[in-house]
Amino acid sequence: MYVYYYRDPVNGVSLTSSPKGVTVEANPTVYITGNNNRQINRQQLTEFVRSLSDTYLCNFGKWDLSLFDFNSDIQVNHPPHQYFELCGSLKTWTRRPYESGINYSTSSNTKALTLYDRGDRAQDPDTHTIRIEASFNKQIKSITEIKNRKMKTMNDFTTPDNYRQLPKLWLEAYEQLNKNETFDYQPADLSDYELDVLDRVRLLTLNGYRQKLRVDYPRNFRYQEMKLEALLDKLRAHRHRNNLPLDIIGELNQKVRDRAAQLIAEA
Question: CB of 116 within 8 A of CB of 130?
């Protein structure tokens, strides 16, 4: 069995040919901009497919996609490591912290979520930036099954309606991450029950506490969740009324959601 490799260092494209077929690896951002420092949009992704096809005299738009990464940079108010320390588990994914970030991946490596410090690439040393990257590999079921959309080939990913699904998937992966809420600002009139709930949320994370409610109260889970939401609304109202800043995780959550909404609107 023979396996052939070809690499185009100028365009950052690698090709592997084996009896199983031909695989092409390329970074659209690097191909279009020359580096990986900023995100490209849907129009630039379309240009990448067209240019790649013209360069190699092959319609890559009809090729099946087997690996896709979607990322965006988030400017934050504090050093990134402070946010990473508050990132807990992610369902059944494996958590792997490293020097400049944290990675989560499924046992089959079909999906991954990575948060890492982009400070080494920042032009302003006082700017704190976190890159959040979602990776989807192999069959990419979570993409192909979205609203019965056909998202199989490169061309499928460049249509406006389909492209809008990518920041939604990116946000969905982030939202599933259990994050340790700090609740830095609390009103003075919290009851013992409410203080106990906040202690449990700090211990289990907000998502983890919700899951515990499902287990402990299978018959009236909705009622218990309504009480939790009422407490969270009380904390938010206290913060707004006193013009207090978001806690560190609340800040990141809001910025990630705002960024996803912007990407969806721009698709």
Answer: yes
pLDDT along the chain (267 residues), means of 10: 75 83 86 86 93 89 86 93 88 88 87 88 74 80 55 86 90 89 82 93 85 92 93 88 84 95 92
Go through the domains of the chain in sequence order and give each one's CATH number: 1-63 (no CATH), 66-179 (3.30.530), 192-246 (no CATH)
User: What is the full DSSP assignment across 15-44?
Assistant: EEEETTEEEEEE-HHHHHHSSSSS---HHH
β-strand pairing of 21-26 with 13-18: antiparallel
